[in-house]
């Protein structure tokens, strides 16, 4: 599991290879990931936006950005935790993701970025 703390917000990432599937007549590797967001700070924050860079060993890069995560903009009070799962498709069996969440401190209205650490996406055969 990969972890990163930015301004008291801890991001943990766990990944899992889910197999292959055809998409647009091309074979893709499917990767799932679970993100846990923990508010270790003393202030209440709200996740407003996400930004991802997804890349693989075939030099394919995809940028994903938008409001919230999985259709939600969670509010986290001190010591709250929010967990969600999502996934991506890669043409290569090796890749990585990185990014950030934009959050707002609901007490000071300060916006800030929380780093999502780079995490690897690899098939089991690659690891052996």
Verbal overview:
By secondary structure, this protein is mainly β. It has a single domain (2-123), classed as ApaG domain (Immunoglobulin-like), CATH 2.60.40.1470. It has one helix at 124-127, and strands at residues 2-6, 9-23, 26-39, 45-56, 61-67, 75-76, 81-90, 94-105, 111-122. The two termini are 18 Å apart. This is Co2+/Mg2+ efflux protein ApaG. It holds the Pfam family DUF525.
Notable traits:
128 residues; mainly beta; Immunoglobulin-like; five-stranded antiparallel β-sheet; four-stranded antiparallel β-sheet; 9 strands; 3% helix; Co2+/Mg2+ efflux protein ApaG; ApaG_sf; ApaG_domain
Question: How would you summarize what this structure contains?
Answer:
With 128 residues, the chain is mainly beta.
Q: How large a portion of the residues is in β-strands, by DSSP E?
A: over 45%
Largest sheet: 5 strands, antiparallel
Helix content: under 10%
Shape: elongated
Which secondary structure elements does this structure contain, and how are they paired or packed?
Elements: E1 2-6, E2 9-23, E3 26-39, E4 45-56, E5 61-67, E6 75-76, E7 81-90, E8 94-105, E9 111-122, H1 124-127
Antiparallel strand pairs: 1-2, 2-3, 3-7, 4-5, 4-6, 4-8, 8-9
């Amino acid at each position: 599991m990969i972890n990163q703390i930015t301004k008291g917000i801890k991001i943990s990432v766990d990944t899992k290879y889910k197999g292959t599937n055809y998409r647009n007549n091309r074979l893709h590797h499917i990767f799932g990931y679970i993100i846990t967001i923990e508010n270790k700070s003393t202030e209440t924050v709200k996740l407003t936006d996400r930004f991802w860079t997804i890349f693989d060993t075939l030099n394919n890069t995809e940028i994903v950005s938008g409001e919230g995560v999985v259709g939600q903009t969670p509010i986290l009070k001190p010591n709250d935790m929010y967990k969600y799962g999502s996934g991506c498709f890669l043409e290569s069996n090796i890749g990585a993701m990185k990014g950030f969440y934009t959050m707002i401190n609901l007490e000071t209205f300060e916006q800030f970025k929380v780093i999502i650490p780079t995490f690897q996406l690899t098939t089991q055969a690659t690891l052996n």
